[in-house]
Amino acid sequence: MTHFLASVRNAAEAERVLAAGADIVDLKEPDEGALGAVAPSVIRDCLRTIGGRKPVSATVGDLPMNPAAVAEAVAATAELGVDTVKLGIAAEGDPWGCFDALRSLSAPADLVLVFFADVPSDVDPTEAAKASGACGVMLDTAGKGRGSLTDHMTLDEIGRFVDRARQAELQVGLAGSLRAHHVLPLLALRPDVIGFRGALCEQGARGFNLDPKACAEIGRLVAAGRTAPEARFEARPTSAVCSISSARPGELGGGEEETGAQNGTKIGTCEHGERHRRALDRIFVHDYVLEVEIGVHHNEKGVTQRVRFSVDIDIASDPTTLDDDIDRTLDYDYVINGIKAIISGGHINLVETLAEDVAQHCISHPRAERVEVMIEKLDKDPGAVGVQIVRSKQET
């Protein structure tokens, strides 16, 4: 499960993010840089306020890679009683000397190394973690005015970072001027932590005070994207089935299909031709019905109506990388959870808007190449009405 990390500068902000559902309270001073450190007295005050309700992490400041200074700062911050100490890694200086010094520490806190997507470095994160004894690695951005994490790395590159950390049995976190629209695409990569500061603040400015509504919205998005709470929605008996089928280059259509004996849901295989010069597989969710607040007419306001979702996603075919591990594929829960997160935002006027949001969620997954979305309103006379759209990765 991905945990929601919220960065705060004092005890009052800590209470605010806890109320918004933060899983980890991260202590840093945004006015002092990307990983600006708060004063020891602030750390103690925050620890008293939080009182063990959630784990607490703290940064040590934007330090030069001087082994003695780094080891001293990490040890001093750990001794204050935080659960995790975060250290930003720079290429200049003596990073490997720092790792040697850190490994010899017996600090009472875990260590997480932070790497900056917008600052070139030849330091390998997993090797650095091994050398320093760190339990985790994290991506962030150093220049908060130079764009978000996804402006400096593609989702594929971020996904590879996550995969390498997992293979090394490290915890892995993602941060870096992230906003609400980053939540679902990054949750699809299944990091252990996703971190926010600016998105939680008034006017989206990391140095401003926290905005309770913004904090609550990020908390809701993370919770909806990772758990897809069921209480808000009624799932009809025609539910969802996932099927993966190998596509043979140069051959179109024509897979076998049958109807499930229990609920009428379509299941089977789908075969299609060569796209983007490589074989594709297809994952689908068909005939999935939810109650949705949708429509422009007066009699559609304040009520729900049945909406049927059918989604087909063409994905890059590489079965050798799956290793029978669901975390390495695009599973149908990603589609279902995304739909539920989208409609949890409140009333939607147009079916076209809903279809576009679903398509953009699906195509944002690193393995997705093309998506077809059909959405039907089932309670309109004389039968189903709706829209079908097709989107591909090149268009996004």
Automatic annotation (TrEMBL):
Write out the catalysed reaction: 2 D-glyceraldehyde 3-phosphate = 4-(hydroxymethyl)-2-furancarboxaldehyde phosphate + phosphate + 2 H2O; 7,8-dihydroneopterin = 6-hydroxymethyl-7,8-dihydropterin + glycolaldehyde
* Gene3D superfamilies named in the record: 3.30.1130.10
| Keyword annotations of the record | Folate biosynthesis, Lyase, Schiff base
Q: What GO biological process terms does the UniProt entry carry, in alphabetical order?
A: folic acid biosynthetic process
Which Gene Ontology cellular component annotation is one that this UniProt entry carries?
A: cytoplasm
Query: Where does the source fall among the domains of life?
Result: Bacteria
Enzyme Commission identifier(s): 4.1.2.25, 4.2.3.153
Pathway annotation: Cofactor biosynthesis; tetrahydrofolate biosynthesis; 2-amino-4-hydroxy-6-hydroxymethyl-7,8-dihydropteridine diphosphate from 7,8-dihydroneopterin triphosphate: step 3/4
Q: Boundaries of each Dihydroneopterin aldolase/epimerase domain copy?
A: 283-391
Q: Where is this region: Disordered?
A: 246-268
SUPFAM superfamilies tied to this protein:
Tetrahydrobiopterin biosynthesis enzymes-like
A Gene Ontology molecular function term of the record: dihydroneopterin aldolase activity
Record's Pfam families?
Answer: 4HFCP_synth (PF04476), FolB (PF02152)
Query: What protein family is recorded?
Result: Belongs to the DHNA family.
Q: Which PANTHER family match?
A: DIHYDRONEOPTERIN ALDOLASE 1-RELATED
What's this protein's function? Catalyzes the formation of 4-(hydroxymethyl)-2-furancarboxaldehyde phosphate (4-HFC-P) from two molecules of glyceraldehyde-3-P (GA-3-P).
Name recorded for this polypeptide:
4-(hydroxymethyl)-2-furancarboxaldehyde-phosphate synthase
